[in-house]
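Handoff note, outgoing to incoming analyst
You'll be picking up this chain. Sequence as last confirmed:
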Amino acid sequence: MPIEQNNGKWIQFIHTVSPTVTLSISSDSASTIDLVSNRGPSSLEADRGGSQLIELENGRYMAVTHNTFLFPARYYSQRLVLFEKAENGFTVLSHSHPFVFQRNFDVEFGSGIALSGEHVFITFGMRDLEAWICKIPTQVALALASEVPYKSDKASQRTGRGL
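Most recent structure output, in case you need it:
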């Protein structure tokens, strides 16, 4: 999940949600990669990608993640996740309970998120056939994303540099 920010030094991505693995690629040299892994909530271990992270305020970011289930057929649930920019990468602050956009037990995939004025817009696909946009008041999105708080010890599990 790419991270929307404008510092110009690094291009950053969240590779996994829990543990929260942050990949940082130097904009000067694409061959320099920093990897930081911070603990995350066990409730998000199966959650994956979805949207990019959008910057809110006070060093907080929001994203949409998804989880795939295969019973009775393949279907997805989504979550709104709040992240905090930490000294080493990103950590999860809280997340929503699982939700669906339109239908239970169907293929829905949140793919983008944007903040515009008083609203958060989430783009999502239905059954790999249709594209939709969900409009949520920002305060409601923040309240949903804060339903399940996570207290991290902020200890980094591993760091590395590659390529």
